Amino acid sequence: MHTRWIETFGLPAFLRNAARLLLCGIIGCLGVFHSHADQLVKFKSATSQPTPFQTRMARQRGEEPKIFPGVPIQGFLGRPAGDGPFPAVVLLHGCAGLGLREREAWSRRLSSWGYVVLAVDSFTTRGIRHTCDRLFYDRANDAYGALEFLTTLGFVDSRRVALMGFSAGGIAVLQAVQLGAAEALMKQKFQAAIAYYPSCSAMSGEMAVPTLILVGERDDWTRRRPAGK
């Protein structure tokens, strides 16, 4: 699966339109809707099955590979008015936590396009303030836990759910849909992915779903290319 890169000069309308084009093209786009207020919801991150490497290493040690159970997390659910079923988007925040941009601005915008939106809060229930000084590797499981939660809602079309993230959340998006990684261990699958200004240095570039990556040409925090290249 090819990954599409778009370099921008930080034009918000362009970024919004690029995201909308991918979502509409892959999981459908329905017009203009009024939305319900966001609702606090609680669910669990996805149960983590051991990877083939972890299984092999455990058995070499004479142990059974461990299954890591999901942990309680929360999020904010927004939806268009009406019965649905609607396509949906899971939103992953950046390293500073869930802010008004993801919880309100993006939720309202996507709901107005006809999507159910689940903005995942990966930090509050874990007692984390930020992860801007490190990578936090559990967030792909948070994304799949959110996907599993959405499939239980009758007004969501579980066959049309996309994943979107910003900065550290964008990294988690790529980790979640990288071919043969977390997605290979999950029963439910995302249908598209959008990552805003992620670091891609540890990614293979092979994604399991259509993936749009948007970066700023002058971004000196998460460059598209390593410094000096």
Condensed summary:
With 229 residues, the protein is of the alpha/beta class. The protein contains five helices and eight strands; from the N terminus they run E-H-E-H-E-E-H-E-H-E-H-E-E. The longest helix has 16 residues, at 12-27.
Highlighted features:
229 residues, 8 strands, 26% helix, 26% strand
Task: Walk me through the topology.
Elements: E1 3-8, H1 12-27, E2 35-44, H2 52-60, E3 72-80, E4 86-92, H3 100-112, E5 116-121, H4 139-150, E6 156-166, H5 168-177, E7 192-196, E8 211-216
Helix pairs in contact: 4-5
Gap from first CA to last CA? 26 Å
Number of helices: 5
Order of helices and strands: EHEHEEHEHEHEE
> Structural class, from secondary structure content?
alpha/beta
The helicity comes to 25-40%
Number of strands: 8
For the largest sheet, list the strands in their spatial order.
1-8-7-6-4-5-3-2
Query: Average pLDDT, to the nearest integer?
Result: 81
Beta-strand content estimate: 25-35%
Q: What form results from the Cα inertia axes?
A: globular
Q: Please tell me how large the radius of gyration is.
A: 17 Å
Low-pLDDT windows of residues? 5-12
Tell me about the largest β-sheet: 8 strands, mixed
Describe what this molecule looks like in 3D:
The structure is a single chain. By secondary structure, the protein is α/β, with parallel strands linked by helices. The chain contains five helices and eight strands. Strands 1-8-7-6-4-5-3-2 form an eight-stranded mixed sheet, sandwiched between helices. Strand 4 (86-92), helix 3 (100-112) and strand 5 form a beta-alpha-beta unit. Helix 4 packs across helix 5. It is globular. Mean pLDDT is 81; it is low at 5-12.
